[in-house]
Design a protein that fits this description.
The protein is α/β, with parallel strands linked by helices. It has a domain of about 70 residues: 2-Layer Sandwich (Nucleotidyltransferase, domain 5). It contains 3 helices and 5 strands. Strands 3-2-1-4-5 form a 5-stranded mixed β-sheet.
């Protein structure tokens, strides 16, 4: 930095101005570095992909409606079945791919023992998804 001049005058006061040229040089060098490296920071590969419309293949599992009447009568998709037949059908359904869901419908007056037995039969057969079906309250 210059604090004086080469003049041989009586004024030997220090120079009170900031030399801006080195600061501008550093700023321009940094600007050039950022301009060069900015495109390298993006990791995208530009491709011209073909356009096609299709629907995804979603295989939705079927559901099995198991109903229990108030007296404990069992129904498989509306067909009356015995408990032994229900166990056999649940075992066959558990081996299907994708495994169907069991929708359990029970009358309001059904004993809990009947519902627990059907749930235990489904669990023992290997059924993984069991859901209760109810009617929403009217407001």
């Amino acid at each position: 930095m210059a604090f004086g001049s080469f003049r041989q005058g009586s004024e030997s006061a220090p120079m009170a101005e900031i030399n801006m040229i080195p600061l501008i040089d550093v700023m321009l060098v940094l600007l050039v570095i950022f301009i060069i490296t900015a495109p390298l920071l993006t990791h995208a590969v530009k491709l011209d992909l073909p356009k096609a419309s299709s629907q995804p293949n979603l295989t939705r599992p079927d559901h099995i409606a198991v109903s229990i009447a108030a007296d404990g009568t069992l129904f498989w998709n509306g067909e009356r079945v015995e408990r032994r037949t229900l166990r056999e059908r649940l075992g066959a359904a558990s081996r299907q791919q994708p495994q169907p869901e069991v929708h359990l419908r029970a009358d309001r007056a059904t004993q809990y023992q009947s519902i627990a037995e059907v749930m235990a039969d489904a669990a023992n057969a290997g059924m993984g998804r069991i859901g209760f079906v109810s009617t929403p309250e009217e407001r």
